[in-house]
Specification:
This protein is α/β, with parallel strands linked by helices. The chain contains seven helices and 16 strands. It has two domains: 94 residues, Beta Barrel (Elongation Factor Tu (Ef-tu), domain 3); 149 residues, Nucleotide-binding domain of ferredoxin-NADP reductase (FNR) module (Rossmann fold), CATH 3.40.50.80. The strands form three sheets. A seven-stranded antiparallel beta sheet has the order 4-3-7-1-2-6-5. It binds flavin-adenine dinucleotide (FAD) and FE2/S2 (inorganic) cluster (FES).
Length: 261
């Protein structure tokens, strides 16, 4: 089976609310679940007709080729995600995927993930693959409060070490998760850091990358209309070399030195 994106139907198996405004969505889908690789995403349209007009992009958090399932983790933000929240098991939705560039390079002894909120969903598949290949996985989850920590149940089993930081100190370290990363880098040899869900953390990782302490990568989550490189609505500026990347075609993950944050 090829890796070209396909447009197809999927069936909702579970749509579980997590906390106030998160949704854990399990879909049965026989094709994308076989071909998707870490780092890729899909576009979903879960409403009839063209209102809202555009499908919404989400990371493929997990894919199980045997069960033919895809799992997404969604923060409810606006109209499209509110419609996803109202989905019931058995409903058919339309998805296009897998989209974006797969992560193929696992030639490193360890990786760290510095993620905030639903940004955690971007790294679950990658963390699972890294763990399966015997790569050390260090995960740092950041949230405003303990009740807002998400995806822990997916990341904990595949993490060599999982650390938590909350803004209000209701769980783990009280303060910036980037402090935990700095401490981790003092204690362990970590060569790559992937970050998602916070501009502030992305800038921190970019600084560490510039200082040569790690190789940094960022998952970008901008606006998208087509998801396939046609509309140029997702362009981000290249750092220092002029021109633009398209997040949907060239990303959504980038070496952090190469993009303007
Ligand atoms: C690659 C990628 C992966 C993502 N993964 C996740 C994830 O795993 N979990 C998660 O919670 N969030 C993820 N997001 C963010 C998620 O897509 C948005 O939160 C979601 O689209 C919001 O939809 P909404 O209808 O609820 O919000 P709204 O604010 O109502 O709508 C936002 C959407 O409107 C459309 N739109 C609005 N204005 C424009 C414009 N000017 N040009 C083009 N399009 C426009 C876009 O489709 C945009 O996604 C991801 C984003 C990207 C790009
Ligand atoms: S979303 Fe259309 S080019 Fe990226």
């Amino acid at each position: 089976m090829g890796r070209h994106p396909v447009y197809r139907s999927a069936t909702v198996l579970e749509a579980k609310e997590e906390g106030r405004d998160y949704l854990d969505l399990l879909l049965r889908e026989p094709e994308i679940s076989q071909t998707t690789r870490p780092g890729q995403f899909l576009m979903i349209r879960a409403w009839p007709g063209v209102d809202p007009m555009l499908p919404r992009p989400f990371d493929i958090m997990q894919a199980d080729p045997r069960e033919q399932t895809l799992r997404l983790f969604v923060k409810v933000e606006g109209r499209g995600t509110a419609l996803l929240k109202s989905l019931k098991p058995g409903t058919e939705v339309k998805i296009t995927g897998p989209l974006g560039r797969p992560i193929e390079d696992f030639s490193c002894p360890s990786m760290a993930f510095l993620v905030r909120g639903a940004g955690a969903a971007a790294v679950v598949h990658l963390a699972e693959e890294a763990r399966a290949r015997g790569i050390g996985v260090y995960t740092i989850l950041s949230a405003s409060a303990a009740s807002r920590i998400v995806c822990r149940k997916y990341l904990e089993p595949v993490s060599t070490e999982l650390l938590i930081a909350t803004d209000d100190g209701s769980e783990g370290y009280e303060g910036l998760a980037s402090d935990l990363l700095d401490d981790l880098l003092r204690r362990k040899t970590v060569d790559r850091v992937y970050t998602c869900g916070s501009r502030r953390f992305a800038r921190h990782v970019q600084r560490l990358d510039r200082e040569g302490r790690i190789k940094g990568f960022v998952f970008l989550e901008g606006l998208m209309a087509c998801g396939m490189g046609d509309c140029h609505g997702c362009a981000v500026q290249k750092n220092g070399q002029g021109g633009y990347f398209l997040v949907c075609r060239d990303g959504p993950h980038f070496p952090i030195a190469e993009v303007v944050l």
